[in-house]
Amino acid sequence: MPIHPPAQVGQSFDEVDTPALVLDLDAFERNLVTMAAYTQGHGVRLRPHAKTHKSPEIALRQIAHGAVGQCCQKVSEAEILVEGGVTDVLVSNQIAGATKLDRLARLARQARIGLCVDHLDGVREAAEAAARQDVVLDVLVEIDVGGRRCGVAPGETAVRLAEAIARSNTLRFGGLQAYHGTAQHMRSIDERREAIERAGLGARNTVERLAQVGLTCGVVSGAGTGTFEIESQSGIWNEIQAGSYIFMDADYARNRQADGTPFRTFEHALFILSGVMSKPVPDRAVVDAGHKAASIDSGLPTPFRRDGVVYSKPSDEHGMLTGEPIALPHRGDRLLLVPGHCDPTVNLHDWYVCVRGLHTPEAHVEALWPVAGRGALT
After folding, report:
1. Which among 164, 203, 325, 356 is least surrounded, fewest beta carbons within 10 Å?
2. What is the spatial distance between Cα 13 and Cα 365, in angstroms, rounded to a whole number?
């Protein structure tokens, strides 16, 4: 971690160094309230995904707004969350190997810990790790509902895994993991609804078959920022794992609502503050935010409230701004970029620079939160 963060608490926003990962606290807090009100109003549990923010500070604020806990993808992320005070964590992913499973099982001495399986070997390995650590782990069977990644086929194969979990003395059958990642970024609401309805058929069938063998499926967990409204209203999913809603990146903003307008349920709250370090010709400016400041796997960052300005051609430490000369910023100016994909962009930074009143003359740094899970890959 760098010796000097890009800002200090109490500074004016104009004094923040660049590039910096900026969190608009006002928009962030409104996003928290919006999702909490929605999930509570529809009678579903909210278990936000910490792979988005990698921050116990943010996790605890989500829990204060009614979330039941957190989910994450890596054991190291779970360790950071538990150390930071989170007491209910689901690793919504497959974990293979005794080293990782022993680390996860040790966490169950401090918090309620869950994981997912899609193979009988996964059940056996999890049971053995729990026995070595003398704990009980919650285990969800992951079913493939259309993403074609991890997960067994819905139905009988999933039931056999659930029965194996239920027979174990060190595991507790926790329900189903039914997340359709591909559906999150289908642009039209009709495409997203069709994909989730197909996913729901498999999930419902599995729940019914579990009941036939005497197993209660207390949790069907999944959904993301792009589809949570559909799952919440389905009568099948009862736990929502949305993560990006707190930040709203440029890719999610490309989704369309029923009337064809852009997805605007949540506000852009996460930005990369960049500075113009060069303007060699009138129709090109160069900023100090390139590949090492923003992930581009889901598209390039977009200049925020800068009509006529286009960000392009990033290299390691540079990004190009092009457009009509009158629209381009000058050398020494700063501008906000909305990341194309918030999760991997966060993982490039050490600090959240938390700004109050970001879009007002009174904008100032209220807090610095470390990206505690940066690089948590194991």
Report:
1. 325
2. 6
Task: Answer yes or no: is 226 within a domain.
Answer: yes
**Between the CA of residue 202 and those of 66, 176, 233, what are the distances in Å?**
29, 11, 16
Provide the greatest CA pair distance for the chain.
72
User: Number of structural domains, the chain?
Assistant: 2
> What is the domain-level CATH number for residue 268?
2.40.37.20
Read off the pLDDT of residues 283-341 as tens digits, 9 standing for 90 and up: 999 999 999 999 999 999 999 999 999 999 999 999 999 999 989 999 999 999 999 99
d(CA 7, CA 251): 28
Report which secondary-structure segment, H or E, holds 341: none
Verify that 45 and 148 share a domain, yes or no. Answer: yes
CA atoms of 152 and 161, how far apart (whole Å) = 9
Q: Where are the alpha helices (H) located in 65-155, listed in sequence order?
A: 75-83, 98-107, 120-133
pTM above 0.90, yes or no: yes
Instruction: Assess whether 195 and 220 both reside in one domain.
Output: yes
Is the distance from CB of 199 to CB of 178 less than 8 angstroms?
A: yes
Residue 284 CB neighbours (<10 A) = 16
Contacts of 37 (CB under 8 A, 6+ apart): none
* Crossing angle of helices 156-167 and 189-212, rounded to 10°: 50
176 within some domain: yes
Determine the residue type at 73.
Q
Structural domain range at position 170: 25-254
- CATH number, domain containing residue 222: 3.20.20.10
